[in-house]
Amino acid sequence: MSRLATIDLGAITRNVATLRDAVGGMPAMAIVKANGYGHGAVPAARAALEGGAQWLGVATIDEGLELRASGVGAPVLAWLHETDADFAAAAEAGLDLGVSSLAELEAVAAAAAGASVQLKVDTGLGRNGATDADWPALIDAAAALERSGRLRVRGIWSHLANAGKAEDLTQVARFAEALAAASAAGLEPELVHLAATAGALAVPEARFGMVRLGVGIYGLSPLDNASSADLGLVPAMTLSATVASVKRVPAGHGVSYGLDHRTAAESSLALVPLGYADGIPRSASGRGPVSINGVTHRVAGRVAMDQVVLDVGDAPVREGDRAVLFGDPATGVPSADDWADAAGTINYEIVTRIGARVRREYVG
After folding, report:
1. Can you list the alpha helix ranges (DSSP code H) found in 112-256?
2. How does pLDDT run across 92-135, given as a tens digit for each residue?
3. Which of 37, 120, 247, 257 is catalytic?
4. Is CATH 2.60.40.4070 correct for 237-363?
5. Which fold has domain 9-218?
6. Average pLDDT, the chain
7. How far apart are CA 325 and CA 303, in angstroms?
8. Active-site residue among 33, 37, 218, 348?
9. Is 120 a catalytic residue?
């Protein structure tokens, strides 16, 4: 099959170990939401556990149930719930449930007696999590439910906004205050976690009792001032396709919709069957880098739904050659960061948006 995302599971395992070493070996939750950031949730979960992760994190209950259905038995936290969330199924599968409000807590207690919950406090990010005003009622109710045996409060957590060191430290202080209030209410959670990959690396004060490792385990840096290589990480995904056609055209020949690109001289046009339906950002039109036979070319003109065109000049490109859009830059190919720069986005989006038409192949 032409469209191929090659996933190096050994890289994920090593990246987890590298990141845990960087934070002093403390316990880690590997985040495998969104199909493992596009890498495949179940294979990524198993590779991360092999690297030393003790917990797994997902956004939705369905994502957690997928792990359980595939035989993954490690502890799992799911934290993003809609009003029709199946808390009973989650508890039966042994999933921990993130709880962000009193109403959510009461819904969990009513649907899933004995469930294990992790209370989330909003320390400044402004997404889910109880506000300062709502936190006292949430912890008091949670403590009462725990005393009655209706549920277990296993953890308390929050999430940094990554808005700079000063803002991060403000959130650390607010989190510490929330923990003190919870302790005064009688809660003694075994898990306390605030930092994701960026905070774990850049804000030691935010590590508390566990860190959550997300994009870093896939070999991508969350930091503006450090590359994957700087952090000792290896990108796990290589996205490629075989060149579908090559044709010779004269100078001035237009390329793709709108004819935004015209050949400067007689040239070869190489067609690569990956487009925005496969997750290639249209905003990278005219800029996205693609490597063929060790030479990097740029997308010529607009990214189409199913394909991109490269103006390769006189380079010896043939049908059937493999075109690499991104992978490990240490091998001489473009990186997900290069595509993020070309598209005006972040590396997270580049890998997570790769679509279902792209076959995942696992190595390592």
Report:
1. 135-147, 165-184, 197-202
2. 999 999 999 999 999 999 999 999 999 999 999 999 999 999 99
3. 257
4. no
5. TIM Barrel (3.20.20)
6. 97
7. 13
8. 33
9. no
